Structure formats: C-alpha cells, structure tokens
Amino acid sequence: MTTCTKTTIIQKISEKNNQPPSEAKDTLETLLEIMKSTLASGEDIMISGFGKFQVNEKSPRKGRNPATGEDMMLKKRRIVTFKCSGGLRDRVNEKL
Fold first, then answer.
1. What's the CA gap between 27 and 67, in Å, rounded?
2. Are residues 66 and 91 in the same domain?
3. Closest by alpha carbon to 36, among 55, 13, 18, 10?
4. Co-location of 68 and 48 in the same domain
5. Which of 3, 44, 45, 68 is the most buried (most CB within 10 A)?
6. Does residue 52 share a domain with residue 33?
7. How many CB atoms lie within 10 A of CB 87?
8. Do 25 and 67 belong to one domain?
C-alpha cells in the first residue's frame, strides 16, 4: 500500500484541471490554510460526500510518563477527529 502525499495530490489536481503544477499547488495550499484556520478557531468542517472534521475538547486528566512511570497531570486540549461519510465508507470498502 502506498501513501498519497501533498506532491501527488498537486500532480493529480494539475492533470485533472489541465493547469500548471504551481497553480494546483496554490489551490491546495489555500484549501489547507482555510481548513487549518477554521479548525483552529474551534469550528467543524463538513464536506458533503467526504466527511466531517470535528474539534473535540479533552478535559485535564491524570497520566503517566511512559519512560519514568511518574504520575503527571495532562492539560486540557483540543483534538481533531474525522468521521467519513457513508458514501466514502462504501467506496473504500467496495473492493473487499
């Protein structure tokens, strides 16, 4: 199994839209920057037919340093989760 990188995505956008790679890169970078700033502000992103990126808050909790075994308190934090749409899930599982 291979990994699709940003470079691969840029190449595919360039080919499908018949545009120079530099233009495709600008388009992708703009999209990613919009997504990052939206998530950083605490808003969710829902892309119809693809899925939902959701910001969740984790409460402070007790943890343990795995290297030393020492108890510690982990700070409150936000995490991003992704839940795929039913259509994407079906497409991913199509070839099983």
1. 43
2. yes
3. 55
4. yes
5. 45
6. no
7. 12
8. no
Q: Is the pLDDT of residue 1 over 80?
A: no
Give me the pLDDT at residue 2, please.
87
Residue 90 three-state SS = helix
Cβ proximity of 11 and 4 under 8 Å: no
Name the strand (E) or helix (H) holding 23.
helix 21-40
SS3 95: coil
17: containing domain:
1-41
Residue 33 shares a structural domain with residue 77: no
11: left (phi over 0), alpha (psi -120 to 50) or beta: alpha
Same domain, 37 and 57: no
Here the tokens at position 12 are: 């595919």
Are 12 and 59 within one domain?
no
What pLDDT is recorded for position 29?
97
Predicted TM-score (pTM) of the model is 0.81
34-76 pLDDT, tens digit each: 999 999 999 999 999 999 999 999 999 999 999 999 999 999 9
